């Protein structure tokens, strides 16, 4: 009746440590990747955070994320609300096809880059055969999404009240299925220096008989 899921974006090198943590605590993540950007050493310089953030290499994707879910995040991390139809098609269909070729299984999930989504984007995502897609603004609740292609996760991992949500979820004795879904970017743990906080959260949530530790795909049964 209770599921805990995680959704991490952009396929950055800090995912290696995040996967280690998930594996240690028996948790499963969904990782949303940009297939056109998976080149060792390439990335971007974040001016605000004064740091260079780099992508994982496509050659390590299959082994690194084994046991977790890979989902679409557009081919080049485009702002999908602003690109023309031809590019929109490419960003979604090509990313899905490239990730499927890399991993050998059907991809059914997605996270919208920058959280940008409108009716045209949703229609294209549906045409591509994607069954659920995540936005960035939080719901701050544990409801399953009424419209899976417009899914608001419970919250970002850095919110002040993460541990309040955690306690509320642990105490919950629901009479219908509930989901605690968290999203973020693993580089944020390096930038904020708060890996410990997140590990405390994982430790607190792990090993419970009444919680299913699943990927987003498994939680939605798609
Ligand atoms: Zn992103």
Structural account:
It is a single chain. 35% of the residues lie in helices and 19% in strands. The chain has helices spanning 15-25, 58-64, 85-103, 119-127, 162-171, 187-192, 195-205, 216-220, and strands at residues 2-9, 29-33, 43-46, 51-54, 69-72, 109-111, 132-134, 155-156, 178-184, 211-213. The strands form three sheets. Strands 1, 2, 5, 8, 9 and 10 form a six-stranded parallel beta sheet that branches. Strands 3-4 form a two-stranded antiparallel sheet. The longest helix has 19 residues, at 85-103. The mean pLDDT is 97. Residues 9-10, 73, 77, 113 line the site of zinc ion.
Mean pLDDT across all amino acids: 97
Q: Quote the beta fraction.
A: 15-25%
Alpha-carbon distance between the termini? 17 Å
Helix content: 25-40%
User: Structural class of the secondary structure composition?
Assistant: alpha/beta
- Compute the gyration radius: what is it? 17 Å
> Which fold name fills CATH's third level, the topology?
TIM Barrel
Give the C-level CATH assignment: Alpha Beta
Specify the overall morphology.
Answer: globular
Low-confidence stretches: none
CATH H-level homologous superfamily name:
Glycoside hydrolase/deacetylase
Number of helices: 8
Largest sheet: 6 strands, parallel
